[in-house]
Each structure stands twice: as C-alpha cells, then as structure tokens.
Amino acid sequence: MSRQFDVVVIGGGINGTGVAQAAAAAGHSALLLEKGQLGEGTSSRSSKLIHGGLRYLESMELSLVREGLRERTLMLRLAPELVHLQRFMIPIFKSTRRRPWQIRIGLSMYAVLAGFEKGTEFGTLPRSQWSDLDGLITEGLQSVFYYHDAQTDDQALTRAIMASAASLGAEFQENAQFINAELGKEWSELSYRHQGREVSVQARAIVNAAGPWVNEVLAAVTPAVEQRSIELVQGAHLVVEGRITKGCYYLESRRDGRAIFVMPWKGKTLVGTTETQFSGDLDHVQALQAERKYLGSILAYHFPAYRGKVTAGDCQSFAGLRVLPAGKGHAFHRSREVILETHGHPSPRLLSIYGGKLTAWRATAEKVLRVIATSLPQREARARTSELPLHPVD
C-alpha cells in the first residue's frame, strides 16, 4: 500500500520548504519532493534581499510592503545567522527621476509601515561623507539618503527552513522527479521517480510549489485542471570582482528608471536585477549578453573603478525566473502579490502557488495552510512558525 501523507509538496524552493515547515508545525504529516537539490532553482538566483519592497509604495501596494516588513522583522529575530540588517544608500543626481521630496515621503511611509521597529531609521548623509561611499561618482550628486533592509543567502535560508520542517517530522526527497497525480475525493495518488524507480504516495492535499514549472506540474494532473495564464520574467545578476564595504546602493537606471541594487556579496559585488521576458528552457536559464551589458553600464557609470571589469569578462552572472500573471504593460509595474489557485471543491485537493517573494515565504506558507485546512484532519499543533528559530545547515 502507498504511504499516506496529509500534505505532499512539489518543489523544494523557498515556498515549498515553507509550506512543509508550516504543515509539520501544524501537526500534519508532510512530504516534500524536489527534482534537483533544495533551493538550487529560482530560490538560489534572487537578489538576496529580505525587504518590504520600497518601490512598491509607488504603486500603493501597502499591504504587500507591510507584510514584507513584518516578515523582515521576524527573520532578523529568528535567523540572525542567515539574515543581516544592511544600510542602503539612495543617491539622488540631477538626472534622477525621483526627487528628494519623493524619497523622503517614501522612506517615511516605509518606517510607518514597519511600525518603527528595528532598522527603520533613515536620513541623509552629510556631504562630507560622500567621498567615502565606495567611489560613488559625485558629479551631479544632490543628496544621499540612507535607510535599512536585510540581506540573506537565499539557498542557505531555504535549506535551514527544510531542516526546521524535518525537525518537526516532515520528510523530503531530493532528486525526486514528479511524474503525475490523480486527484480523488478523499485521497489523491501521486507518482514520482527517485533513484531509478517509480514511487507512489497518497496525499490528502497536494501543494504545487514548482515555481516556473507550476503549469508543467498541472499538465500531469488528472482529471485535467485549468492552468492560469502566466508570464515568465528573467532577472539577471552580475557578480563582479571588487568589494563594496559601506553597505548597499539603491540606484536608478538612467535609461528606464528601473531600480538596480549594488551590494556586497561573499567578498565580491552583486549587481541586479533585470526583467526580461523568458521563453526558453526552464532548466537552462542564463543571463543574456544584453542584460550583462545593461547592468555593467549602470555599475560602471556610478562606480568608475569598475569600468572595464564587466566587458573584460571579469565577472560571473546568474539569472532566475519570476512567475507573474499574464497581462499588458511592462513586467516591472505588475503586482508581486502571490496567487493561490485551488482545484477541488469544497475541499481543495490541489493548490498551486503562482509567484511570491523571497521575503514573504513564511506568510505565504501560512496562507496555504489556511486555504487547504478543510482538506486536512484535525491535528495537535507542534509549534508556531513565527517562533521557530532557523539555523544554517552544515
């Protein structure tokens, strides 16, 4: 007889491991399946930020920002070895589209939405300190604001979450390739391939946390379920030789006004990100030459010491994929709110996660558990995810 689990999660990224942790904390039996290694997909190719999303204030996505800031505060407390507060600088030049008064209003709102918790301090740097900002160009510089957000190692955080889930009884399989699933009234049958053999398990609820592969998973489900129309957007980053030591920089692209981050990262400098429509092989996502040139030119303009390093190939690059709802207009202006799509009524047997943010992984997992609660038996909770410490995995 197939093994039975309350929850089976497909996808071992930040959202999938978060759901496994939330399910185990609520007392449920849980199994997570990852076709490769935990966190090696999109969850290892982010901008490495735990933040509220300052730029989302422009589109008045206040609930999204508030949620992110709340989760940032929690992560700083629960995972101090993995999530670190960083000072961010916003240089304002004569050519900058966002004026100082707009930045000040935005930072004030950011502090209010964070409840004036730790890390909400902001202000402007005196002109006497501008020459000490990692070689930032000062020609045309009018003001430099500072505020705080947090930085993490995204893959290490993902592994720490799964370790927490496992300590509560959740199981996981790496190199486990999902094959298909058949939805039933009480139990659903799910098959996957592991170590050369096919394995079948039963689940009361299946959570599709496959990220960019979300619709590929749905295509292998019977009875057939509707797939939401999505757009895959590539975000590229550069990792350049050279060290940023004074914090992180929130820059504005002179070409299109996009927000670009320049940050310290493991003794080098991380630059990102882009938003390019993607239509290639999901298993082979790479930064395009145009993206490298775009990011390199922004870095070199603001920090002249880096000129020539990118074009000379003195850098690495990586790219990940975001799942956004299909729609008109540029992806940069589309909402980052997570979408939870259920299949089966009145008790959902399958839930698919579309999109989401690295920062909000825990909040997303709690929402998932609330949505599928009617499909699950009553269990005695083991813990609260808002109180579970996270530690690096050796």
* Gap from first CA to last CA: 35 Å
Quaternary structure annotation:
single chain
- Total of DSSP H or I helical runs spanning 4+ residues: 7
Quick one: overall form?
globular
The low-pLDDT segments are: none
- The radius of gyration is 22 Å
The main β sheet shows up as: 10 strands, mixed
Mean pLDDT: 93
Structural class: alpha/beta
Secondary-structure element order, N to C: EHEEHEHEEHEEEEHEEEEEEHEEEH
- The number of E-state strands comes to 19
How large a portion of the residues is in β-strands, by DSSP E?
Answer: 25-35%
The level of helicity is 10-25%
Quick take:
The protein has helices at 14-25, 62-78, 100-113, 154-167, 214-218, 289-302, 361-371, and strands at 3-10, 30-33, 49-50, 83-93, 123-124, 141-152, 171-173, 176-182, 188-194, 197-208, 221-222, 230-240, 248-252, 259-265, 268-272, 276-277, 315-325, 339-343, 350-354. It is α/β, with parallel strands linked by helices and 394 residues long.
Q: How would you explain this protein's 3D organization?
A:
The protein is globular, with a radius of gyration of 22 Å. The model has no long low-confidence stretch (mean pLDDT 93). It has helices at residues 14-25, 62-78, 100-113, 154-167, 214-218, 289-302, 361-371, and strands spanning 3-10, 30-33, 49-50, 83-93, 123-124, 141-152, 171-173, 176-182, 188-194, 197-208, 221-222, 230-240, 248-252, 259-265, 268-272, 276-277, 315-325, 339-343, 350-354. Helix 1 (14-25) crosses helix 7 (361-371). The strands form 2 sheets. Strands 3, 4, 5, 6, 12, 13, 14, 15, 16 and 17 form a 10-stranded mixed sheet that branches. Strands 1, 2, 7, 8, 9, 10, 11, 18 and 19 form a 9-stranded mixed sheet that branches. By secondary structure, it is α/β, with parallel strands linked by helices.
